[in-house]
Structure formats: C-alpha cells, structure tokens
Design brief:
Blueprint (H helix, E strand, L loop, with lengths): L18 H5 L4 H4 L12 E2 L12 E2 H6 L4 H4 L5 H4 L11 H12 L6 H10 L10 H13 L3 H10 L8 H7 L3 H7 L11 H6 L8 H11 L8 H9 L2 H10 L7 H9 L2 H10 L6 H9 L3 H10 L6 H5 L4 H10 L7 H9 L2 H10 L6 H9 L3 H10 L19 H15 L5 H9 L3 H10 L11 H7 L3 H10 L8 H9 L3 H10 L6 H10 L2 H10 L8 H7 L3 H10 L23 H9 L5 H13 L10 H10 L9
Antiparallel strand pairs: 1-2
C-alpha cells in the first residue's frame, strides 16, 4: 500500500615471487596475519556484512583469512580472539586502522572493552581523520546500534564529534539509555518531526511507546504531525495512538482508520471509531476486503456510514467477504471481480460470481489465470464463459516452478482448445527456462513454422546454459541461422567448457574475443587453453584485465606468459573489484605490479579517478592497492596516501 500524505614498461620477464620477496612488500602489512591458523577453539559466527565467498556462517579460521582486518570491522570478534592475530600497528596502513576502528564502533556486537584495547593498539586513532562521510556518520551509527558506553567514550575523547542525527538513530532503534546520554549534549539536536518517523516503525521494537513518551516529556525539539497517529495506526501501535491522543494536539486524519483497516488492526479501527472524530473513507472497507479482514469489514458496515465502493467486492480476498458484501451492501461489483479472482487463483469466488452475479469478466480473467498457472480456473472459464483470452496469452505461461507436467498439459490445452498461435515470446520463454519438452512439442506440431526464423534458438539456449537443449536443437534443427558467435561466447560466460567444445566442433559460427574474456573472468584455464589453441585469432588483450579484476591468479599468469610475442598489458581496471566481490586478491595485484603490466602513464592519468572516487566500489577498498603501486612504481601516487 502506498501511503501518500600507471615509466610505461613492456616486459616479457616474469617475476618469480618467493616468500622472502613477499614478506618485504608493504601489502603484507594488512594480510600477514591471514596465514595464521586458529587453534582448536573455532568460533562459529555469522558476519554482519557477508563477503562474496560467504556460504553462511563462518568459523574463526575463515574469518582470520579475510583481508582488511575484517575480523574487527565486519565480524566484531572479541578481544580474546583478536589479540592472537592482530598484526603490529606499523604493519597496517594508518588509513586502514582508522577505517576499521571507526566501523567497529557501530557494529551490533561491538563492546567498549574491545574498543579500548584497539585504541591502545592504535593510539593515533582519531575519527576526525577518517573520510568525512564516515566521520559525519560515526556517532549516528553508534547511537543507532545502542552503544551508549562507546558513544560516551567517543564524545569524551573527541568533544567536537559530529552528533547530528544521533538522537533520531537512537530513537528509531529503541535505545532509551543512549537517548538519555545524548540529552547531556546541546549539540545533539533532533528532527522536529522525530515522533513521526518512530511511529512509522513496524512492530519489531517493543518499546516504541516508551521512546515516544521520553521524547515528549524530555525534549522540547521533538515533535510530530498528524502523520504520527496515522502511521501508528498502520503499524498497529495502539498504545502510541492513545498516548498521542491524550498528550498531543496534532491528531490524525481520515487515513488513520483507512491504514488500520488495510493492515488488519481491528482493535485500532475500533478505538479510533469510538474515540476520534476524523472518520474514514470508502478505502477502509475496500482495503479490508482486499486483504481478507472480514471482522473489520463487518465492523465498518455496522458502525460507520462511509460504506465501500465496487472495489471491495472486485478485490475481495475471500468468498465469505464476497458473499457478505453481496447480501449486505448495494455497491455491487464490476467485471474486475472475476478478472481479479482469476488472477489470484480464487476458484471458489470465480464460480460463485459466475452463478450469482451478472457482471461477467473480460479476456483478462483467462489471460491472468494463464499467466499464474491456475489451470482449474482456465478450464472453468473455457467451459462456462465466452470471453476467452487474448491472442498473446501464451506469452505469459509460467515455465519455471510448479508442476512441469501440468505446464505441458496447459500448453497443449491452449493450443488444441483455444487455437492459440505460438509466438516468438512464448518460444523464447520456453528456451530460457530450459523446457525441452515444450520445444519438442512445438517442433513436432509445426517444424517449419516461421517462428523459428524470428530468433536464434541455440544462442538463447547457450545464454541460459541449457546444454541438453543446445544438443537437441543442433541435431533436430539443422538451420545455420539458429546460432551465431554469441553461442560460444555465452558458453564461456556460463563457464561451460563441454558446451563450448561441442559448439566449436559441431557449429561453424566461431566466437568473438568476448569468449576468452569471459573464460578469464572465471579463471578457467582449460577453457583458456582450448580457446587459445583453437581460436588464436580471438586472443584478447582485455582478458587479463578480466582475470585480474576477478582475482584469478592462475589465469593472469597464463595470459601473461602464453602470448610472449605480444605480452598483454593491463589497465587499471585489473585492480578494481567488481561486484559482488568485496576484497582484492592481493596475490594478483602483487603479480601485476611486480611485473609492470600496467603502463606508467595510465597510472599517472587515471589512478585517482578509478581508485579514489568510488567509480569501482568504495575508496577504502583500495588503500593497500595504492600503497602497492607506490612500492612498485617509485611512490608515483604518494600524494594519495
């Protein structure tokens, strides 16, 4: 419901990295501790911010391996754990320490004792030195997490810390003790409509009424509008409604009962009716009927005069409500009643409307029943109504989920009984969903249909990684136009070497350079070798960027060494972190930079824009990368440190 109111250097020499060379490189500052294995006491913990390798909860040895001191910032491990794996302060970049400690402060599991230990480890920490966007939100986030003790320490050590928004964050998350602390600081002001936003909070926090009472009696800058009571009604906060009614003058609007009726809060509807005078509109009964709140429909009918509109019966969620409205109300319904019930799969209502009302339906009834797979309703409408469906109804047949046998039965029914023509959209949907049975059915009925010439079925099957369907199409439909270079490109994109080999040996389309790029992205060495040996003209110098950006060290090494006649160079894109990954692969970055695979000029002209301005993720993800570039390229980016 919408409530309105990089000296360019080309080299063919590969640097061999040994432990001795790595240990002297600055990037070890932040990852040296990750090689440490835990002892026997593994902690089973979930991450506050899961990384791309997340497979659910992580144990301690996995958490220790995550870069950027994630054990602190993302997992908020206890000090008794952290102290065993925390590197010396000078082995971690200053910026990284600032960021990690700041982020720790607002983690739900953060504790004051661990924070004190972290500040002892990094005594030069000062939140005012972190990027402004983090500094401005630090106190706000700490307050929102309810860490009164941490917030008090921060304000004591850094009296000019920005407190804007802290009161609102604490209030909206139900942290009374934090609100009491913030009352001591005049600079901690709040939004004058703060009570509105609290009342608009769902029923997750049990003490919202306590928070509102505290704000009302203790903060003169905390106010509200009529929206507070309206939104409290929508969320079912009767205690808040009563308090606002007795202690404030803003009141509510006709939408209070409307919202409560929509959400099914009977006690709120009842109280508002007997204690307020704003009333409601026909939307109250209409939406109660739409959402199946029969008791509210009855109450509104018995106690109020606004009534309803035809929308009530048109959108009724239950037969009980439909029958009640039919008997007790005069508004009736329109053809939308059967249309909407067909869409929602409510056969009992469809049948009742057919036999007891005269409004009928439109072709939309069967269209939507087809779209949602309501076969029983489709058959009822076919046998009892004359409206039928639109010519393109089959375009929306649900191909995935549910009973596959019923889907083929439905398609057969539609073709045989309703004489529907198969469309391009229908065939594309079937192939995208890997529905070989449906493709076979259509092929058997009309193998020469013009539909097959309107798109490239093998391309589409490859794009969606349906190898069995690809083979069937190849052996049963011999048209060359059924595929293009996109087929092999898609096989590479899907990381399906078997399908790619099949296409190479059985089709004549070939591939583009995108195939090697995508194979590199997956780090699939066998696929890279196959493409290089069989399609050398498709060698892509961009492939090494794709491999690097996705952390594929073996692929980077292969691509760097296999094409010695023209060793590939990288762009700064090789150092970026594509979603959904959150961390660089520093082994890859070390290899690229130590072998000078990025031209110096590119670093000079593009590094700041790419690594510092959030075009490729957050700038804090690249602190160590910039440090590594400075190490290998004579401090060329020293101005960014």
């Amino acid at each position: 419901m919408n409530r309105i109111d990089t000296n360019t250097t080309n080299t063919t020499t590969t640097t061999t990295t040994t432990f001795q060379t790595i240990i002297g490189v600055p990037y070890i500052r932040h990852v040296i501790f990750t090689a440490v294995q835990l002892k026997s006491n593994h902690h089973q913990l979930g991450s506050y911010y899961d990384d791309e390798a997340s497979g659910g909860a992580k144990i301690g040895k996995d958490i220790v391996k995550i870069p950027h001191l994630s054990m602190i910032s993302d997992y908020a491990m206890p000090w008794d754990f952290i102290k065993h794996y925390l590197p010396e302060k000078d082995k971690v970049l200053f910026k990284r320490r600032l960021y990690v400690i700041s982020k720790y402060c607002s983690h739900p599991n953060a504790t004051l004792s661990t924070l004190i230990h972290l500040l002892e480890w990094s005594p030069d920490y000062d939140p005012r030195l972190v990027p402004i966007k983090y500094y401005h939100q630090l106190a706000l986030k700490v307050a929102g997490a309810g860490h009164r003790d941490i917030l008090e320490l921060l304000v004591t050590k850094y009296p000019d810390i920005n407190l804007n928004g802290a009161v609102g964050a604490a209030a909206r998350n139900g942290h009374l003790s934090t609100l009491e602390l913030l009352k001591q600081y005049p600079q901690a002001t709040c939004d004058r409509h703060i009570i509105d936003s609290i009342a608009d909070t769902g029923p997750i926090l049990p003490n919202l009424d306590v928070i509102i009472k505290y704000l009302h009696f203790n903060r003169s800058d905390a106010g509200c509008t009529y929206k507070a009571m309206n939104d409290a009604a929508y969320n079912g906060h009767l205690d808040i409604i009563k308090f606002l009614h007795e202690n404030r003058s803003e009141g509510c609007s006709i939408n209070a009962i409307n919202y409560a009726a929509f959400s099914g809060h009977f006690s709120v509807v009842e109280w508002l009716h007997f204690n307020r005078s704003e009333g409601c509109t026909v939307s109250a009964m209409d939406n109660a009927a739409r959402n199946g709140h029969f008791k509210i429909v009855q109450f509104l009918h018995d106690h109020r005069t606004e009534g309803c509109s035809t929308d009530a019966m048109d959108t009724s969620a239950t037969l009980e409500i439909t029958q009640f409205l039919h008997i007790h109300r005069s508004e009736g319904c329109t053809h939308k009643a059967m249309d909407i019930s067909s869409e929602r799969g409510l056969l009992n209502i469809v049948e009742w409307l057919h036999y007891n009302r005269s409004e009928g339906c439109t072709h939309r009834a069967m269209d939507m029943a087809i779209s949602n797979g309501h076969f029983d309703i489709i058959k009822f409408l076919y046998h009892n109504r004359s409206e039928r469906c639109s010519a393109k109804a089959m375009d929306n047949v649900k191909m995935e989920g549910g009973d596959c046998r019923q889907t083929i039965e439905l398609v057969t029914f539609l073709i045989q009984n309703l004489q529907l023509e198969v469309t391009k959209q229908f065939m594309e949907n079937a192939i995208r969903s890997g529905r070989l049975d449906i493709v076979q059915l259509i092929h058997e009925r009309d193998p020469t249909s013009r539909i097959w010439s309107t798109f490239k079925p093998i391309d589409l099957a490859c794009e969606n990684n349906h190898f069995e369907l690809v083979k069937w199409l190849h052996y049963n439909r011999t048209k060359e136009q059924d595929s293009s270079i996109k087929s092999m490109d898609s096989a590479a994109m899907c990381n399906n070497l078997e399908m790619l080999e099949f296409l190479h040996f059985n089709r004549s389309d070939g591939c583009s350079t995108a195939a090697m790029d995508r194979a590199a992205s997956h780090g699939n060495i066998k696929m890279l070798e196959f493409l290089y040996n069989n399609c050398p003209e498709r060698f892509s110098i961009d492939a090494i960027n794709c491999a690097a950006a996705n952390g594929r060290l073996d692929a980077v090494k292969y691509l760097h060494t296999v094409h010695q006649s023209q060793p590939p160079q990288c762009t700064l894109g090789a150092l970026t972190i594509p979603l959904p990954r959150r961390y660089p692969n520093y082994d890859v970055i070390h290899y690229i930079l130590s072998n000078k695979l990025i031209p110096l000029q590119l670093i000079q002209t593009n590094a700041q824009a790419i690594l510092c301005n959030n075009h490729y993720g957050h700038s804090e993800q690249y602190y160590e990368t910039i440090d590594l570039i400075n190490h290998y390229y004579d401090n060329i980016l020293n101005y960014l440190v």
